[in-house]
Design brief:
There is one protein chain. This protein is of the alpha+beta class. Helices cover 65% and strands 10% of the residues. It folds into two domains: 201 residues, no CATH class; 74 residues, 2-Layer Sandwich (Alpha-Beta Plaits), CATH 3.30.70.120. The chain is built from ten helices and four strands, in the order H-H-H-H-H-H-H-H-E-H-E-E-H-E. Helix 2 runs parallel beside helix 7. It starts with a helix and ends in an 11-residue tail after the last strand.
């Protein structure tokens, strides 16, 4: 049991690291060289780096400094209850940016196609953020501010952060010029949409309703092979007036494919209704 929990913890932190590195790659290689200020700490660091010109105050360095200050603020407000995963992700993100800056110094964008680079500047961080959200973690930054404001006020923090991101993106119009500013605003809108879309993809599950005259092997397969629960009801067909069984279960996409194949081997005449859902609340899925 202890080995299983260690393996689960190792898998979780490997996924967290993967998500953070995806954010860092998109930010350093595509966002920073093009001055895409799409909000958050990285966007603010870009603007401060332009307003405070210094070879030592690069966007990567400013991101590290701001995240450290926010982490200290988080510890001051939450103490030991402050999530270790947030600290881990925030520090890994900041250190990865600094490491990329030293290992791969960039004086110009990688390509001459700003829209192509905007796509990667948005897609990689959105994917990485969705991975972190799926694991109930974050890369720190403005999320720490959200946690603090939520603790001490009743403010609608989601709307407040969206307004803050919009102001940071809009300020790029005046700091970096019309092209970078418009790309920044477009990137902010794309980011909001993509994070929701990718997060829903991670949460997507298949809901089965199986009407069958041979329920026992199907239930046995769901419980003991797929290790999922199921609900069994006795039903009557409105047209045939036959007594049958209704099995209801919720599975991952891989499990759904396996069950669909198995059902037709034990009951070729079974009637299946398969729907997709992104909100499954209960044991084994999202906590209530």
């Amino acid at each position: 049991m202890e080995n299983r929990s260690r393996a689960a913890a190792l898998r979780r932190y490997l996924l967290l690291s993967f998500g953070v590195l995806a954010i860092a790659v998109g930010t350093y290689f595509f966002k920073f060289p093009n001055n895409f200020s799409t909000g958050g700490v990285s966007g603010l660091s870009l603007i401060l780096g332009r307003l405070l010109p210094s070879p030592y105050l690069t966007p990567s360095t400013l991101t590290l400094a701001i995240n450290l200050l926010l982490l200290l603020l988080g510890f001051a407000c939450f103490g030991r209850s402050f999530a270790f995963s947030t600290v881990y992700c925030s520090m890994l993100y900041s250190l990865a940016l600094t490491g990329f800056e030293r290992a791969f110094p960039l004086s110009a964008p990688l390509t001459t196609q700003p829209f192509l680079e905007l796509c990667f500047a948005v897609l990689l961080p959105a994917f990485g953020s969705a991975v972190l959200f799926h694991l109930d973690a974050s890369s720190g930054g403005t999320d720490i501010i959200a946690m603090i404001v939520r603790k001490y006020t009743s403010m609608n923090i989601g709307a407040a952060l969206m307004v803050a991101d919009a102001l940071i993106a809009a300020s790029a119009l005046f700091i970096f010029g019309a092209e970078a500013g418009l790309f920044s605003i477009l990137g902010m809108l794309m980011k909001c949409f993509l994070i929701d879309s990718v997060t829903d993809t991670f949460r997507r599950r298949k809901c089965f309703q199986i009407i069958t005259s041979n329920p026992d092997p199907i239930v046995e397969y769901i419980v003991h092979t797929l290790h999922r629960g199921a609900t069994l009801e006795e039903v009557r067909g409105a047209f045939s007036n036959e007594e049958k069984s209704l099995i209801i279960t919720v599975l991952t996409r891989a499990q759904a494919l396996s069950l669909r194949r198995y059902v037709h081997t034990v009951d070729p005449h079974a009637f299946l209704v398969i729907t997709t859902s992104t909100e499954i609340v209960g044991k084994g899925f999202m906590p209530s």
